[in-house]
């Protein structure tokens, strides 16, 4: 069953997701959402933001994703954990912010796009 959830005014959609939970609500910090694909034994960490994304915003998102990654690696032993930044259509991502996300191996997906298709291509 696909995951289709609204997070921070962004629509997060993942056609291959089997389960999702709000990491930030469970722990009080970290990424916004974790999506699990049981078939591929894959965890997808999602941080969603709207508006203009500056380098500072990107660094905060990277830190939230990395902190969540550290916790989940010790609790779950999936074959792969993927970090995704979902950006709403409002605003833009500055060039330095885009480079920082790419350097940290964070996939950038627009709101309403299928995360599974974006990361598995």
- The general outline is globular
Strand content: 25-35%
Strand order of the largest sheet: 3-4-5-6-7
Order of helices and strands: EEEHEEHEHEH
Overview of this structure, please?
- The chain is an alpha/beta fold and 121 residues long.
- The chain has a domain of 71 residues.
- The protein has four helices and seven strands; from the N terminus they run βββαββαβαβα.
- A five-stranded mixed beta sheet has the order 3-4-5-6-7. The chain has a two-stranded antiparallel ribbon with strand order 1-2.
- The two termini are 20 Å apart.
Describe this protein with a few key phrases.
about 120 residues, alpha/beta, 5-stranded mixed β-sheet, two-stranded antiparallel sheet, 7 strands
Please summarize what this structure is.
The longest helix is centred in the middle third of the chain and has 21 residues, at 55-75. The protein is globular.
């Amino acid at each position: 069953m696909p995951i289709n959830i609204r997070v921070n005014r962004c629509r997060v959609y993942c056609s291959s997701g089997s389960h999702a939970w709000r990491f930030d609500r469970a722990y009080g910090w970290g990424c916004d959402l974790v999506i699990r694909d049981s078939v591929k034994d894959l965890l997808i960490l999602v941080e969603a933001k709207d508006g203009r994304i500056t380098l500072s915003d990107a660094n905060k998102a990277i830190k939230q994703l990395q902190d969540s990654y550290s916790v989940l690696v010790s609790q779950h032993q999936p074959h792969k954990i993927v970090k995704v930044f979902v950006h709403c259509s409002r605003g833009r991502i500055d060039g330095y912010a885009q480079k920082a996300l790419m350097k940290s191996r964070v996939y950038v997906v627009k709101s309403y796009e299928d995360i599974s298709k974006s990361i598995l291509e």
